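Example 5.3 — Mandelate racemase/muconate lactonizing enzyme family protein
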Amino acid sequence: MQITGVTQHHLSHQLDGHFEPTWIPGYPQSSHEVELFEVETDAGITGLCASPSFAGGLSYETPLSLFLTGEEPHDVDAIRRKLESIDLIGPRPWHLELALWDIIGKDAGKPVYELLGGSGDAIPCYASTGEVQAADERIEYVQDRVDEGFQAVKLRVAEKEDVEVVRAVRESFPDLPLMVDANKGWAVRVMANEERWRYKDALEVARELADIGGIEWFEEPLPRHDYEGYARLREATDVPIAGGEFNDRPGELYRFLDHDALDVLQPDAALATGIRAGVSVAEAAEEQGVEFVPHTWTNGIGFAANLHVMAAAGSPWCEFPIEPPWTPEVRDFLLEGTFHHEDGYVTPPDGPGLGVELDGGVLG
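Solution (predicted structure tokens):
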């Protein structure tokens, strides 16, 4: 089997309103922008993958076709070496590996997680917020999610004062597991710069979270390459520390492990590692007693790919993004079906490959 070409489509889906994600400071997001790729083969099998984008899009179909045409899609390692070259000169290409596994799974007639040695067991999920809200709004949001059956909720903090929102939620929900995400690892600086924290700021917030109690983890309180700072913070606080969602290539994730810097490792298969390296990193993390809970806030194809990795890795949690008007239907608008949770659990798709099909209308 050989790859015969790559076709790219820019997709844009309007939200019913807007929200202000903490990773794009000052920006009211009102659309979901996606670059969709179809990797075609001479066997008539097409693999799907997608990456986040922005209005107007970013076209790189031609160089991808140049690098991948003629390659055997089952030779994932050889193609990853080519993707490393693309990573040097252009956009991150790791989402392309998702399409390879989609092809491999379709060719074998099996879901990717099964090829990776995983099971199709349901995974408990936590509702992942995307913006900072006032305490009364967040309490109402959390009540809605609890009523829907979610097992836990992740709150966002952008400034140190936002910890008071976490405290208010804890007082209203004394037994609910809470995650807290500072989003200081990276940011998209379109409208404004994010408030960056120094080590002492992160430590101050971590100690307040420890006082609040019941915090599953404190996520990305420092820049994503500050391995020493993360290790120092982890040593100084009792609150578990998480990060690594957007670090580039597995080597950067292994640096976290080398520094004993994290309690929870979170690389996104679509953004940071691809599928094969994601599973390898998860295995290394398990050997050190570090949990593996990937970031999933991209699109329906990225969500599916991370579910397969989680199923192979035995992840204890699945991030389930929901911040109306960002809903599962918005996340998965490009797919024929929507991934929903059932009483706080989500199941990896059991169809061949990634187990997803495109909505018939998204390509016009």
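Remark. The chain is about 35% helix and 20% strand.
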